[in-house]
Every structure is written in structure tokens, then in C-alpha cells.
């Protein structure tokens, strides 16, 4: 018998295991009475990149779901949306993205969307002043890799917390409690990294992506090969890099793009090659992403 009220019927599917591996599936039909508690489903979130997934995961309540558009081994600078990715965006209650300077392919779909929360547009984000070179692929000239500053991460967590509360008010206390606990952990991680990086590293980077890290922790990027990790230096730029190389302690490349080009350039510049993981391929938490980066900058010292 199916019970309903107000045109609503709720069906739970439960699987029981009995000796002999006999499985029984029972559908329990629940009457939703007008005097009963309202049923509110979880928030359907979409994140574009792994660092945003790591920032929102600690806040989530039971029933919330995340879909991450891009795997951690895919560059957010250049990609084309699949049909399934477009469907995920259309079905989302909340979409977390950095902004058009990083995920340019999403700008036509997300700018002006009521479901989208653009991290680069949040008040309180700190931006690096200047840089080793202009970010040619970043339409507003700003370094969009803002998650590498834990101060920015705390600002983003607060904004995500507020968006979750608005999307699911019944879990407001949970989101606020988890958000505060996460911000406290980030402050502790920040202090631990500062203690480890007393001597700032001087380096040349394959990818001009570390301005937020440099601003916060004091590392010094002398030059960059390009504004995206796929770029190669021109002959003129290579000459300029060779002039700067004696002042640098290492050449910083990224594990996602490790190839013969980075190894060859390290030999040409006579610098040790160190590999960073700014997208958090090997990280199971945002704190781990930061600590892994700290280890890389420690290794940069000769």
C-alpha cells in the first residue's frame, strides 16, 4: 500500500543480508504528514578543481554531494566541457569556481549564474602586487591561483559556509561549526609552515602560478617560463633566464607537467629541478596540499 500526503511519497530501499547470501529488498513507504518535520534534501555541489573540493569537504553535512568537474591531473587553463559536465552544472544547487582568469571555458555559462560562487570575486581576497611577468592567459592580469595563500583559504571557507547555510538552512549550525573548526586548523597549518620557511626560497618557475604563495610566505620568484605550464621559453626568454639562474636556488616545475622539457631546461640553467603539486593530486586534505608545497620550497634550498 502506498501512503501519500500532499502528493508526496517517500520510498526507502533497504538491502538485508541473510545467511546463504539471500538478499531481500524492502521498500518502506513513509507518509509525510503536514504536522511532521519537513524533509530537506542535501546540497548538490559542483566544484571545478581539486583545491576547491578540499576546501568544501570539511564543511559538508550528511546528504550533501560533490561533483568535481576536472580531475586533479587535468589543467583548468584549457579544457572543453563534455555533455555530462554541462548536465552537472545545470543540476547543481551551488557551483564553486575560481573565476574566468582560471577556468575561461566556464565563463559564458557561469558569469551571472545564481548558483555560481566565484572565489576571485569574494571580498577580502589578497592579491599579489606585481609579479615576474604579465599573465598573458589571464584576461584581468591577476594571478588566479589564490588557494595557495591560506589567508585566502580562510576567506573562501567563510564564503562557502554562508552559501551552504543559504542553500540548506536546516544544517546552518553544522556548517558554522565545521567552518570555524576548519579555519582554526588552517591558522595552525599556516603558523607551522611559516616556522618551517624562515629562509625564503629564490627560484625560477616553469609556471607563473605562485604569486599568492610568495606574497604570504615570502618566497621570491625571480622569473617564470610562462603563464601556463605548457608554455616553452623563446630563445630570447631562455637567454634572460640563464642570466638570472645564478641567483636562483632551483627550477620549480609541476608534477602534472613533468617531462623532458623541464629536465632539459634545468640542465641548461644548471639548477636542481623540484616538483610541486599546486592542484593537490597527492593531497587528501587542503592542509596536506599546503604542507606538500612547503616541503617543495624547503627542498629548493641548495
UniProtKB/TrEMBL annotation:
SUPFAM superfamilies: Helical backbone' metal receptor
Keywords: Ion transport, Signal, Transport, Zinc, Zinc transport
Pfam families noted in UniProt: ZnuA
One example GO MF annotation: metal ion binding
Single biological process term from Gene Ontology: zinc ion transport
Domain of life from the UniProt record: Bacteria
Database matches in InterPro entries: Bact_metal-bind_prot9, ZnuA-like
Gene3D superfamilies per UniProt: Nitrogenase molybdenum iron protein domain
Family of the protein in this entry: Belongs to the bacterial solute-binding protein 9 family.
UniProt protein name: High-affinity zinc uptake system protein ZnuA
Species of origin: Simiduia agarivorans (strain DSM 21679 / JCM 13881 / BCRC 17597 / SA1)
Source organism phylogeny: Bacteria, Pseudomonadati, Pseudomonadota, Gammaproteobacteria, Cellvibrionales
Amino acid at each position: 500500500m502506498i501512503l501519500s500526503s500532499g502528493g508526496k511519497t517517500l520510498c526507502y530501499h533497504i538491502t538485508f543480508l541473510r545467511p546463504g547470501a539471500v538478499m531481500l529488498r524492502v521498500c518502506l513507504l513513509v507518509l509525510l504528514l503536514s504536522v511532521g518535520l519537513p524533509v530537506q534534501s542535501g546540497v548538490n555541489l559542483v566544484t571545478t578543481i581539486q583545491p576547491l573540493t578540499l576546501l568544501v569537504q570539511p564543511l559538508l553535512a550528511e546528504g550533501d554531494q560533490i561533483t568535481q568537474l576536472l580531475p586533479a591531473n587535468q589543467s583548468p587553463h584549457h579544457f572543453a566541457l563534455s555533455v555530462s559536465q554541462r548536465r552537472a552544472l545545470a543540476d547543481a544547487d551551488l557551483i564553486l569556481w575560481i573565476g574566468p582568469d582560471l577556468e575561461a571555458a566556464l565563463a559564458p555559462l557561469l558569469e551571472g549564474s545564481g548558483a555560481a560562487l566565484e572565489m576571485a570575486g569574494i571580498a577580502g581576497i589578497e592579491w599579489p602586487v606585481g609579479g615576474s611577468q604579465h599573465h598573458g592567459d589571464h584576461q584581468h592580469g591577476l594571478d588566479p591561483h589564490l588557494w595557495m595563500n591560506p589567508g585566502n583559504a580562510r576567506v573562501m571557507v567563510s564564503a562557502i559556509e554562508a552559501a551552504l547555510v543559504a542553500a540548506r538552512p536546516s544544517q546552518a549550525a553544522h556548517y558554522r561549526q565545521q567552518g570555524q573548526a576548519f579555519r582554526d586548523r588552517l591558522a595552525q597549518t599556516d603558523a607551522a609552515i611559516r616556522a618551517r620557511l624562515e629562509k625564503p626560497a629564490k627560484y625560477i618557475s616553469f609556471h607563473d602560478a605562485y604569486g599568492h604563495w610568495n606574497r604570504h610566505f615570502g618566497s621570491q620568484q625571480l622569473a617564470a617560463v610562462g603563464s601556463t605550464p605548457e608554455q616553452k621559453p623563446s630563445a630570447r626568454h631562455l637567454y634572460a633566464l640563464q642570466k638570472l639562474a645564478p641567483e636562483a636556488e632551483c627550477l620549480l616545475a609541476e608534477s602534472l607537467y613533468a617531462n623532458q622539457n623541464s629536465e632539459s631546461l634545468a640542465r641548461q640553467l644548471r639548477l636542481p629541478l623540484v616538483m610541486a603539486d599546486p592542484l593537490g593530486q597527492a593531497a587528501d586534505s587542503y592542509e596536506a596540499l599546503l604542507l606538500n608545497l612547503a616541503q617543495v620550497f624547503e627542498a629548493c634550498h641548495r
